[in-house]
């Protein structure tokens, strides 16, 4: 059984209520196992195709189980080894098959990393006066461990946050490790009770709210609060509770996934969803220039 790369808790199922502009994606023709398929390019997807399970029988593919790591939960899915054509990475690839809502009539979805040889433009809403644009460095395919999600780089506190934009996700959130960096740099405190958030493939994970004394700036966006995944890819134990002093550090207790073959990982990831992207009119992935651009008020 092949183990897939980690999903990193940043991939969310498409929300049920979506505005027409935020829900619209690019639909492109590709071929899978020498058969034509319609593919939706999704800013939050990986460079690997994720397809409707009905295609398995239609294309006569042999499948085997694979695993997706969500930090605290491992989910088993079906996958197949098949040739793919139509993007910047033609060749034999692992294809994941899973039920997903919001494919907009397409049979599969794929991320911008699969089209890093071109410019992909995602209109989010009509432009407004006074908008400003920010450009984050984007290096497609830089880290194969992360299944080639499309991340922009944001330096903070001596580390590099990887920022992924997801116009279909209702909420933004960060991994525990990213939250520690953000809280230390911007004066953060944890508040509120834990609540479960749907991530993907039926997996939910607990989050709490991080409140920032100094907003986190991503160009024109000034993020002053952010849900944090408290048990995945790091520990929030050193982030102060609102009105209390921080506790001594303790990286045990299940906060970090450790196995005989892996070391604790501190993965600094931040997803920006519609709660902040509603302020933005356009999201552009420019492969030739190596940047992700965001235009917001």
Short structural summary:
The protein is mainly beta and 297 residues long. It is built from 4 helices and 19 strands. It folds into 2 domains: 102 residues, Cathepsin D, subunit A, domain 1, CATH 2.40.70; 176 residues, Cathepsin D, subunit A, domain 1, CATH 2.40.70.10.
Could you please describe the fold and organization of this structure?
The chain is mostly beta strands. It folds into two domains: 102 residues, Beta Barrel (Cathepsin D, subunit A, domain 1); 176 residues, Cathepsin D, subunit A, domain 1. Helices cover 8% and strands 42% of the residues. It contains four helices and 19 strands. Strands 2-3-8-4-7-6 form a six-stranded mixed β-barrel. Strands 9-18-19-10 form a four-stranded antiparallel beta sheet, with no helix packed on it. It is globular and about 60 Å long. The N and C termini lie far apart (47 Å). The N terminus is likely disordered.
Features:
4 helices; single chain; 2 domains; 297 residues; mainly beta; 42% strand; Cathepsin D, subunit A, domain 1; 6-stranded mixed barrel; disordered N terminus
The first-level CATH class of the largest domain is given as Mainly Beta
Number of helices: 4
Query: What string gives the helices and strands in order?
Result: EHEEEHEEEEEEEEEHEEEEHEE
Which spans have pLDDT < 50 for at least 5 consecutive residues?
Answer: 1-23, 249-264
Helix content range of the residues, please?
under 10%
Strands, count: 19
Q: Assign the CATH superfamily of the largest domain.
A: Acid Proteases
Largest sheet features:
6 strands, mixed, barrel
- The total tally of domains equals 2
- Please state the second-level CATH architecture of the largest domain: Beta Barrel
Radius of gyration (CA) equals 19 Å
Widest sheet: strand order? 2-3-8-4-7-6
Report the sheet-strand fraction. 35-45%
Query: How does the helix and strand content classify structurally?
Result: mainly beta
Which of globular, elongated, flat, extended, rod-shaped describes the shape?
globular
Q: Mean of residue pLDDT?
A: 82
Give the termini separation: 47 Å
Query: Could you name the CATH topology of the largest domain?
Result: Cathepsin D, subunit A, domain 1
